[in-house]
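Re: [ENG-882] Designed sequences occasionally contain unexpected residues at chain ends

Forwarding the minimal case from QA. Structure tokens:
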């Protein structure tokens, strides 16, 4: 990778707004924390803003806390967009007007290359891209940044379970462990700690488990009203979509977040089945081979048959 254009843009500017996609995950949060460290260490003014809060179970990454859901006053010299395939995924309007220049660092194959500088590397976690930037540019970073990057990579690979896990990824994580990143602790914090409210929410989701298309498709439902009913936060359902592909007969899993107006599909797959292609058949949808998402502007009882029809056709052709 060639980093000279990115470095030059950073050197020439002073104020930066860092942001990422709605419903931030471990890759987006870890990458934001790492890049914020880099910019502030370089003497820049850097602010981190997301439309949605850091999920409670990932709050340990957010230390010291720098990510805000209060949109800052601008303008800024540079908008840094991490882990987002397009500006609409940020969840707030006029993002392109907040800064004169945009840096786009991402790994989604449907990325629209919306930046003045675009480092888009499909198949690599955003945290991996930043690791390569730091190491290839001889930027020394402390243990806490090594742990930001480790969590980013680990969560993007589903705890090293997804098909984007490879030797290169494991070697990078090995080097971060050699720096002192506590692999066992970070895995436990990322995957095994939930608030009582989160566990209540997840128990309600599990109760909706259903199978379709001769058990090749598994769904779980999440009525959005449950968040208010239980006092839960959006991040309390984090990881539930991954549970939909646990049954041995299942090729495609879906977590269905819905209200009376629309249904959001968090899609998961295995055995090489490409749910990214399925998501892109719906306007605004997209993602990776094994993890993608889209929204159909219809209530669940109408949206689910539409999606099952698309999946049925793709399974026949697979």
């Amino acid at each position: 990778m060639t980093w000279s254009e990115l470095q030059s843009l950073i050197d020439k500017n002073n104020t930066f707004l860092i942001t990422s996609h709605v419903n931030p995950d471990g890759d987006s949060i870890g990458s934001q924390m790492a890049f914020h460290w880099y910019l502030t260490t370089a003497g820049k003014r850097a602010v981190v803003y997301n439309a949605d809060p850091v999920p409670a179970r990932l709050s340990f990454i957010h230390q010291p806390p720098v990510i805000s859901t209060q949109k800052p006053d601008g303008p800024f010299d540079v908008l840094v967009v991490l882990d987002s395939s397009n500006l609409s995924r940020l969840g707030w309007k006029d993002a392109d007007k907040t800064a004169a220049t945009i840096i786009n660092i991402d790994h989604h194959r449907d990325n629209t290359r919306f930046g003045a500088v675009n480092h888009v590397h499909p198949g690599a976690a955003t945290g991996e891209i930043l690791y390569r930037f730091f190491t290839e540019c001889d930027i020394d970073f402390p243990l806490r940044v090594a742990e930001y990057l480790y969590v980013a990579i680990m969560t993007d690979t589903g705890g090293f379970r997804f098909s984007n896990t490879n030797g290169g990824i494991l070697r990078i994580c090995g080097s971060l462990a050699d720096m002192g990143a506590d692999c066992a602790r970070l895995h436990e914090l990322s995957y095994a700690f939930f608030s009582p409210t989160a566990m209540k929410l997840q128990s309600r989701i599990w109760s909706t488990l259903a199978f379709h298309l001769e058990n090749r498709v598994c769904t779980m439902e999440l009525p959005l009203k449950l968040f208010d009913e239980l006092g839960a936060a959006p991040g309390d359902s984090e990881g539930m979509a991954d549970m939909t592909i646990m049954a041995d007969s299942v090729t495609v899993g879906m977590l269905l977040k819905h209200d009376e107006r629309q249904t959001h599909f968090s899609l998961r797959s295995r055995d090489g089945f490409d749910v990214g292609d399925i998501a892109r058949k719906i306007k605004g949808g997209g993602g990776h081979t094994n993890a993608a998402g889209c929204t159909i502007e219809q209530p669940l009882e109408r949206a689910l048959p539409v999606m099952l029809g698309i999946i049925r056709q793709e399974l026949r052709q697979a």
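QA comment: On inspection the terminal residues look reasonable. The mean pLDDT is 94. Proposing we downgrade this to a documentation issue.
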